[in-house]
Every structure is written in C-alpha cells, then in structure tokens.
Design brief:
Elements: H1 9-16, H2 22-33, H3 36-52, H4 61-76, H5 83-92, H6 95-108, H7 113-120, E1 122-126, E2 134-137, E3 143-146, E4 151-155, E5 163-168, E6 170-174, E7 183-187, E8 190-194, E9 198-202, E10 210-216, E11 219-223, E12 226-233, E13 237-242, E14 245-250, H8 258-261, E15 263-270, H9 271-282, E16 286-289, E17 297-303, H10 307-317, E18 322-325, E19 330-333
Parallel strand pairs: 5-7, 16-19
Antiparallel strand pairs: 1-4, 2-3, 3-6, 4-5, 6-9, 7-8, 8-11, 9-10, 10-13, 11-12, 13-14, 15-17, 18-19
Length: about 325
C-alpha cells in the first residue's frame, strides 16, 4: 500500500480520486518529496485530471492505453536524449494519451469512465488525523465540521438544482434555511433531510448504524431507498437507524457532539461508554482489561481537559484501576 521508492499506481489512482485516507495521503506526499521526478509525475497526473474535467469526449480506456503503451515502448528503444530534447519529446505526447494514462490508473481500480466523469464533477473534503473539526463552508453558506477521518462530497453544481451531500464518518452540520431547497445528506443506509438546523451525523459506527443527534430544528431521518420508513427527530433527541429499523431516544447529555465542543458529562455512566467516547474525542485507543471492570460507573464533567488528566481523575475515584501504555494502546486494568 505504501509508496516508497517505486511508483504504486493503485495508490496514486486512489489519491487522485479522493479515495485515500490520512495515512495514504501522507504516503503519497512522502513519495512525491523523494525526488523531483516523483513530484513532476504527480503534478502531471493532477494536471491531466483537471483537463479531463473540461473535456466532454469519452475515451476507450483499453484502446487509449494500448496506443500510449506502444508509444512508450517505442520511446524505450531510442537512445538517451539531452535534457532539452527529452523535454521536447515529452511534450510531443498528445493530451488524449496523457489522459489515457490517468484513465488507466482508475481502470486498475475497476472504475468505469462514467464513474470517473461523475467523480470529476464532485468536490471531496477529507479530515486527516490532525484536522479534527475541519470546517467546510458550502456554497450556500451552510457549514460542516468534520471529525477525524470523515469524508464529505458534493456536486460542483451544489445549490443550483439541489443541496445534496454525501458523508462517510462523522460531521456536525449547521445548515442555512432555504424552504425552496431542502438540504439532504446521504450517509450509509440513511438519508437525512432538513430545511435549516444544526445537528450531528455519525455514519462511522459498527454494523452500518447511522446516528443523528439534533441540536436545533427538526430533522427527518429515513432509510435509503425507502422513503416510507422515516421519522422526525426533535432538538435534544437522537435518531438511530440500523438494519432498516429506526429508533428514537432522548439524549441525556450533549456527549454526542463532544468531539466538536470538547464538553463531556458523565452521570453514573458505564466505564465502557466513557472509554468509547474518549477514544472518539481524543482519537486514541483505550482498552479495558480485567473481569468486572465494565461494571465500574463514572461521574464528572470535563471541558477541553487533557486526556491524561481525565484518566488520572477516573483512576483517583477508582483506586483499583491502573493505567498502562504500549506503543499504540492505553490500557485500564484492575
């Protein structure tokens, strides 16, 4: 997966299509910095993608690549040219050939030309590990705040015909009111529709769950592909859809958006629930070890407190707990 000295075309294809995660993005960036040749190649691929966005013609990927491959084979049989001549030879490649090369990258991933065209019409924003709470302002003035690893996509035509976005992961939305154009989110097996409100969507849960916490306004939650299976969520409530079933509940506190606000309140909360929230808010891996440890109850409120202080307070109130650390995991045991 990781690019080192050799070129990983699959990873480059994912990178250009906006399908890479934070770790893969860093791998591509590191590879590009290893040499001027790598940097130039990445720049040329990116340029070709931008040109493709302005082209209406469809390409036969196999045929285009065959032509490009023949050209490259012919080039490899020639003698080494001076730098200036090599540059001229490089410029000799026609735009369709260079575009065909870019198309090949996606062909390796099994993506059709139609899907490529659709991706090129999309704006995709990804929040890296260092970008928790990454702010995205949509063309209509609505704001989206992405949790670590979240991916937001929307059409370059957003706001002209509709206000539709796609979400993978967790994000907080502050939507500008527009009665003539409802705001719609596709996330996992759920569709969320609003006119103007603020709410949190988490589609990164296990078992394809999608959770919606409403801060202000009213939100409609429905099953993707089944508009009749829907429910309205009021402020302070949570809607959870799992396996086509929608459950509504009252949020006992605002911990659902703690990753954004930094505020956490625990009232007789199971330690397992507390640890799950800390893992999400601080992007760490805390694990519990020991029989009966999951029966421990936690109380307390925190606001932007360092993780170490929170764990120290928990252990101070529960002396049987001990903190241990490995390279990538924090253990609480007794």
């Amino acid at each position: 997966m990781i690019l080192k000295n050799k070129t990983n075309w699959n990873l480059l294809a994912k990178f250009m299509a906006g399908e890479t995660d934070a770790k893969e993005n860093r791998a591509v960036e590191t590879w590009a910095e290893k040499s001027q040749e790598n940097k130039a190649l990445l720049h040329e691929i990116n340029t070709d993608w931008q040109k493709m966005d302005r082209m209406n013609a469809r390409f036969d990927v196999d045929n285009a690549w065959s032509k490009l491959n023949n050209r490259l084979s012919a080039e490899s049989k020639t003698v080494e040219l001076p730098v200036s001549s090599r540059k001229a030879a490089r410029n000799y490649f026609t735009l369709p050939m260079r575009v065909a090369a870019s198309l090949l990258f996606l062909a390796l991933l099994g993506i059709s030309v139609v899907e490529i065209a659709n991706k090129l019409k999309q704006v995709t924003v990804i929040a890296s590990v260092e970008e928790k709470g990454k702010a995205v302002e949509l063309p209509d003035g609505s704001s989206v705040y992405l949790n670590t690893g979240a991916r937001l996509s929307y059409s370059k035509q957003y706001g002209r015909k509709n206000r539709q976005v796609q979400l993978s992961g967790e994000a907080f939305f502050d939507v500008k009111p527009d009665k003539s154009s409802p705001f719609q989110i596709s996330a996992g097996n759920a569709v969320i529709r609003v006119l103007g409100t603020s709410f949190n969507v988490n589609s990164g849960n296990k078992d394809n769950q999608v959770e919606v916490y409403v801060a202000t306004g009213i939100v409609e939650l429905s099953e993707n592909g089944n508009q009749n299976n829907r429910a309205l969520i009021k402020p302070g409530n949570i809607g959870l859809i799992e396996n086509s079933k929608i459950n509504l509940s009252i949020a006992e506190n605002a911990n659902s958006i703690a990753w954004k606000t930094g505020a956490m309140t625990f009232t007789d909360a199971p330690l397992t629930e507390v640890i799950a929230l800390l893992n999400n808010v601080y992007n760490v891996n805390i694990a519990l070890k020991g029989d009966g440890i999951d029966t421990i109850r936690i109380n307390g409120s925190y606001q932007y407190d360092p993780l170490g202080r929170i764990l120290d307070v928990i252990c101070a109130h529960n002396p049987q707990l001990v903190i241990a650390k490995s390279e990538d995991t924090i253990y609480l045991s007794q």
